[in-house]
Each structure stands twice: as C-alpha cells, then as structure tokens.
Amino acid sequence: MMSFYSRIKPIAKEVMLPRMDAIQRVMTAGHKKWANDPHWYVMCFAANPEKQGQGNGRKLMGFVCSFADASNLNLYLETHGPKNRRFYERNGYECKQESKISSRGSGPDFEMHGGGLAMLRTPGAGSKA
Question: What percent of the chain has pLDDT over 90?
C-alpha cells in the first residue's frame, strides 16, 4: 500500500511548489515596492478560529503597533481576503496593492479570496486596538 507521503510528493511537485513560487514572487515584489525602508514585518498573525471574535487579535495587534509606533517605523504585511483586509484596516493599515497570483500554467492560479494584499501601517496610524 502506498503511504500518504509518497502520494503527496507528486502533488507537491506539480501543484504546490509552483503555487508557493508564485506566492513568493508576488510577496517579494510587494515587499520591495512598499517596504523598502527600515520597518517591522508582520510575518504571521493568526488566531484559533474557535477563539476569534473575542478581541484577542485586536489586543495583540495593538501591542505590535505600539512597538512600531515607539520605534517610529512602518509595519508591513501580506495577507488575503476581505475579512483580513477589514481587520488590518481597522488597525491603521492601508492596502497598497492587490495582486492576482498566477502559477504560470503549472496548475490553477491561486486566487484565494481574490489574490494577495500588500498592507502598510505608518507610525501612529488610526489604530483602534
């Protein structure tokens, strides 16, 4: 019997790796364009879906924003989707770029919720956190 991992490997080569490369190309270009000066980079920001809506993300983002404000540096991140966009905009971020992420013919395009978003928050921007 073929193991789970041996079945996944061909899928990863054919679909996942080209998608990951496509995401990386878009993220690198956005980062270079919108965050080319000293800044804080929010690499990963997530909450357990069962704990969402309790204000924990807002409080944690307020904490992150306070560090950036104290150092007088921008915050930059990449995300996707209208729900994430609203969350970050409520915390002072501005959407600088929306990008369709194409895997260039090596599988279906990655268009989760319309593609990727490059978002930037300047020091002191209207955080409601």
Answer: 43
Does any domain span residue 76?
yes
First to last CA, the chain: 52
Considering the chain, what is the average pLDDT of its residues?
82
Residue 126 placed within a domain: no
DSSP SS3 for 40: strand
Residues of the domain holding 107: 9-121
Residue 81's domain is classified under what CATH number?
3.40.630.30
Number of structural domains in the chain = 1
67-113: pLDDT as tens digits: 999 999 999 999 988 889 999 999 999 999 988 776 665 555 556 55
DSSP structural state of residue 54: S
Q: Is residue 127 part of a domain?
A: no
Residue 68 included in any domain:
yes
Q: What does the buried/exposed string (b/e) look like for 1-34 if buried means 16 or more CB atoms within 10 Å of the residue's CB?
A: eeeeeeeeeeeeeeeeebbeebbeebbeebbeeb
